[in-house]
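Take a minute with the sequence and fold tokens given here and flag any structure token that looks odd. Thanks in advance.
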Amino acid sequence: MATRLGLGLPQMRQYSIGKDVPDVARAAEDIGYDSLWVFERALLPEPATQGLYGIDGLPWPDEYRSVAEPLVTLTLAAAATRRAELGTSVLIAPLHLPFQLAKALASLDAASGGRVLAGLGTGWSLDEYAAAGVRPFEERGAVLDEIIDVCRAVWGPDPVAHDGPLTKIAPAEVGPKPARPIPILLAAGNRRAWRRLVDRADGWLPVSAGAERVAADWRRLRELAEERGRTEPIRTVLRVNTTRLPKPYEGADRRPFQGSIDQIVQDLVEHAAIGLDEILIDLQGTARDAAELTDVAAEVFEKARAAGV
């Protein structure tokens, strides 16, 4: 069976969000992509108080100076499409009030006919937490736990009730309800986060750091699921952030998904062999505009399918 392929929607500053998001979403669905995805970046601090991903000295990419709000972006895509699933990879959950986030996701799922995938993570930026976090950065794991609880309650049958540190819902009717139970996928990257995923979530959202690393983590996650007695399958969607170049990258230090379209496709082949359910391909960063993004997305899809992905 072919690996499902998803495409990252245009959210960065070189795009006209109101026009380009619907246009790219429609085109991606016509090309054959199975899903459409957004990510969240709230701000770019100047000067940066920490490096990218919290790594000292690692600069933030210039593209992060302007990133459209993810749920607004997905709403534009939902209105322009009929089939493709609509996912977040990822929403930084502790930057959102639990009840409002649960309501927004339920409304989007109801409006789109049951196509939403709620990909959640805890983020890493201290500046984003200072600007928008509902609790301090150190409490991010506990906040994510409560957000999952609130979402499950709000999406479930009435009367909805919840009594937690952040959110208190007296028994109430809360609608609209999602068209079906919204899958929750987590961007878990360590054993503690994997335990939360195995016990509480529907799927896993890894980011590629090379096929060997992803394969090893997937093996360890399955072993943990067996240890903890999980019998339900874990849905997997791998995010690949590409750096497309006009010619092949010849250096020995080439990172996965860096280089020509053919090199990116070869990396897709290698990662598809891991056996994950889906690969989300984000091509927007190195595209000049929506027309180029659409053309490259079509070429990558065609070549990936021809290569057996």
